[in-house]
Design brief:
The protein contains three helices and 20 strands. The strands form five sheets. It has a seven-stranded mixed β-barrel with strand order 1-13-12-18-15-14-20. A four-stranded antiparallel sheet has the order 5-11-10-9. 44% of the residues are buried. Strand 14 and strand 15 form a beta hairpin. The protein has 293 residues and is mainly beta. It is globular, with a radius of gyration of 19 Å.
Length: 293
């Protein structure tokens, strides 16, 4: 039996997450998840891929206020603008407008990143259709409403990393929203097609092809590669290229989920095509490292 072990939302795309015991889930994912993003003056989004220092930015949402913290700069508290002046915003193939969150937030992020930047929020008329086996919508996430991973997948990965002489990595490297416990088989989440927990229901969209972000220390915002990408490349190759960890999902029924909720799988698929069956068994054992704050 699988249960929800951890829930995390990421208020500002690319910045640190907030773990919570319970959250409402709307059509675009958990409340506040990727509701803001930092963009260039032309609207192109800033991410940890090019600016790993974003990982060290700690956003906190409290009512209608957003607090921003980062090493070396003073905290900034701004009133969230739900509507108002628009600013171009893009996330990969999606192009639209966001709500400009004001000069103070723009100056703060410009100082942190060392180049002109603007903070935008999701507009009330935001429209975005996500792809995959179950289509849906999303705010400023890379492509889908939810990223789901399991503890057994991380444990298996860390066993392989340790067997190669490396250090285990924490789950926060993968920036998932929903962490599941209870499945002994690694990457079982890849085989889920429809699942529910609490009062919400989710549908599989696609496997998550990873970029360089898992090689960033999420506590410090410093690059810390080559793990876990190096080890994943040995046994989690996607047929279309890249390496995969976790699955992306669409929200089929909005609702509320909580840590400890039982996960009910309504339909399954066959084995993941990216899991190599020919790799020799492992003998090393790794414990799961503590999560970054």
């Amino acid at each position: 039996m699988a249960r929800i072990a951890r829930l995390t939302y990421y208020p500002v795309k690319g910045c640190a997450g907030t773990s919570v015991p319970v959250t409402d889930v709307g059509p675009a994912g958990p409340t506040h998840d990727r509701a803001f993003q930092v963009v260039a003056p032309d609207g192109d989004f800033r991410s940890q891929r090019r600016y790993p220092v974003l990982a060290a930015v700690r956003p906190r949402v409290s009512g209608e206020r957003l607090t921003l913290s980062a090493p070396g700069v003073e905290d900034l508290v701004v009133d969230v603008r739900r509507d108002g002046p628009r600013h171009p915003a893009s996330t990969f193939s999606w192009h639209g407008d966001g709500i400009h969150q004001g000069a103070a937030a723009a100056e703060w992020f410009s100082a942190v990143l060392g180049l002109p930047s603007v903070l935008v929020g999701v507009a009330p008329d935001h429209e975005r259709v996500t792809s995959g086996e179950h289509p849906g919508t999303a705010a400023f996430a890379d492509g889908h409403a939810l990223l789901i991973a399991s503890e057994s997948s991380l444990d298996n990965l860390n066993e392989r990393i340790v067997a190669r002489g490396g250090e285990p990595v924490p789950m926060d490297r993968f920036r998932a929203n929903v962490i599941l416990s209870g499945w002994p088989e690694p990457h079982r989440e890849d085989d889920v097609r429809v699942m529910s927990a609490g009062t919400a229901k989710f549908g599989y969209a696609q496997q998550c092809v990873r970029c360089t972000v898992p090689m960033v220390d999420q506590a410090t915002g410093a690059k810390a590669g080559p793990e876990p990408i190096r080890t994943l490349a040995g046994y989690r190759r996607h047929p279309d290229g890249g390496v995969v960890f976790g699955m992306k999902a669409a929200v089929l029924r909005p609702g509320q989920v909580a840590v400890g909720d039982e996960v009910i799988v309504h339909s399954w698929a066959g084995p993941s095509p990216s899991t190599a069956a020919a790799e020799p068994p492992l003998t090393a054992t790794a414990s799961r490292p503590a999560e970054s704050a």
